[in-house]
Structures are given as structure tokens and as C-alpha cells.
Specification:
three-stranded antiparallel beta sheet, 3 domains, seven-stranded mixed beta sheet, 6 helices, about 30% strand
Length: about 280
């Protein structure tokens, strides 16, 4: 479902303000779209011919509800939905220009390469991307390649349904070889309150982060401002248990100068015998 289109003089028109029977153009693919509405149907635009590839055409109700939720959270007038960046030929789901933030909502599968490209494109304009993954497709036991790309960046999940019920959340989880071995209860995130922490590599949850951006209520916020919370203490116990044991110098020497050469020699002998 599409809520925005281009009208006269390339002005962005919201479906609620559009007129039936008037030609509009899709923000992304440029094809003709018309207004559709009814007594029990939200006003929206539809393509006159089905496009082969168009994110606007394929957006679900859940996707749109998440966008509207972010807009309401930040405050109407402070953010923009479906904002086009002509310099990089991208349309951002939600833009908060004052804070130089782009929120990208993802309800369908996406490749790791596309995630990297979007982040790189927006970064070239000075914007940081905050990814919102819908749990219908993501946050499964098997971690997607797209999620792995952003694990050290600000990213969250959402359980928003088509009626607008739900929210955006953070969580503690442990990923081992691409699988979630642990997953804690969700932490409600307030996307209207972004903050940046100072360089603090002493905390295990911050040590691998490549961005200092976080939001009120998320896991980083909990670690920085509520270090004694039971939720965080449990997470830190698991982190400590998973850390590799540091070897003594003589153990490293034994493995490097005795065990490893022996294994190499043994492998060479086996290869020669098996010829």
C-alpha cells in the first residue's frame, strides 16, 4: 500500500489529500498511479500497471504502520516520510533531518549487500541509518545475513501489526555461528530520544560497536544507566561465561612450537602414503 506520490511540479502528495481520477506518479519507479479509497478502505495510491520492481508498490500495512509510529514518536513536522534523496537515488522510509538520521523499515527479505549499499549511500550525505526489522521475517533462531551486517550498528526489531498495535524493541541475544543461542525478552525503545555515548571500551556490550548512537530504553541505554538491572546482570553472566579462557605463555608456546609442527608433519606423511 502506497501513501505518497508525486503530483504537479514534482510535489509529494499524501493520499489523504489526493483526488480521484487524477494522474500521479510513483515516487520510486515513476509509473502512473491513481488514488483508491472507500468507506472501509484507507486512501492510498495504486499502480495502473503492475511494476516488476518497486518498493513502494510492495509495502505492507505493517510497514506503513511502523513508519507512522516513528513519525508520531518523533513528532509530526519534525520528520519526513518517503523522503527522496535525488543525489543517491534513494527514498528513505523516515528521515529526521535535525538529527541526521534515516530509519529504514524492513518487513521483507533483503540481502547483506543491499544493506551495506544503503548505509554507504546515506553515509555519503552525512546520515546514519537505523534499521527496524520486522519480527515476522527477522529475529529468528537462524540469523539472516542482513542482521549480521548491522549487529554492531543501531538496529531494532518491531512486532507492529496491520492495525498499528505493537512497537519497536531492543533485546539481548547471543549469536554463535549464525544461530541465536540465547534471546531475552524485548526492551521497549523510544526512537524520539537518541543519544551518543563517549568512547567506553571497558564495557563488553560497547567494545564491538562501530557506532555510539543509541536510544532511550535499548540495551545500550540499560548498560550505561542501569548497570545493576537484573536483565543486564543476567546478560553479563552469559557474556563472561562465553569469553575464551586466556592461555598462559607456556601453553601458547607448546601449541605453536610442538603441537602445530607435529600436526603438519603428520598430515604430510598421510598425504604421501595415500598417493
Amino acid at each position: 500500500m502506497q501513501l505518497y506520490a508525486l503530483g504537479e511540479k514534482e510535489r509529494v502528495i499524501r493520499a489523504a489529500a489526493a483526488r480521484r481520477g487524477v494522474d500521479y506518479r510513483c515516487l520510486e519507479c515513476g509509473n502512473l498511479v491513481h488514488l483508491r479509497q472507500g468507506p472501509h478502505r484507507q486512501p492510498h495510491f495504486y499502480h495502473l500497471s503492475t511494476p516488476t520492481q518497486c518498493r513502494q508498490h510492495g509495502k505492507s500495512e505493517e510497514h506503513l504502520e511502523v513508519q507512522r509510529f516513528i513519525e508520531r514518536s518523533i513528532g509530526k513536522g519534525r520528520s519526513k516520510l518517503e523522503h527522496r534523496f535525488s543525489e543517491i537515488d534513494r527514498i528513505a522510509d523516515v528521515v529526521w533531518e535535525e538529527r541526521r538520521l534515516v530509519f529504514e523499515v524492513q518487513c521483507s527479505p533483503i540481502t547483506a549487500a543491499e544493506v551495506k549499499e544503503r548505509c554507504r549511500d546515506y553515509a555519503s550525505l552525512g546520515y546514519e541509518v537505523v534499521w527496524i526489522f520486522h519480527q515476522r521475517q527477522f529475529n529468528r533462531r537462524r540469523v539472516s545475513a542482513a542482521e549480521m551486517v548491522v549487529r554492531h550498528h543501531p538496529y531494532y526489531f518491531t512486532d507492529m501489526d496491520a492495525t498499528g498495535r505493537g512497537g519497536i524493541y531492543s533485546q539481548y541475544d547471543r549469536v554463535v555461528e549464525g544461530w541465536r543461542s540465547e534471546r531475552f525478552n524485548p526492551l521497549a525503545v523510544d526512537v524520539s530520544q537518541p543519544s551518543y555515548y563517549k568512547d567506553n571500551r571497558s564495557h563488553v556490550l560497547l567494545s564491538q560497536r562501530s557506532s555510539s548512537l543509541y536510544f532511550a530504553g535499548d540495551l545500550i541505554d540499560l548498560a550505561l544507566h542501569h548497570p545493576t538491572a537484573p536483565y543486564l546482570q543476567h546478560a553479563m553472566t552469559l557474556e563472561a561465561a562465553a569469553m575464551p579462557i586466556k592461555e598462559a605463555w607456556w601453553e601458547r608456546g607448546w601449541r605453536r612450537y610442538v603441537v602445530h609442527p607435529y600436526l603438519c608433519l603428520f598430515q604430510a606423511v598421510l598425504e604421501k602414503v595415500c598417493r
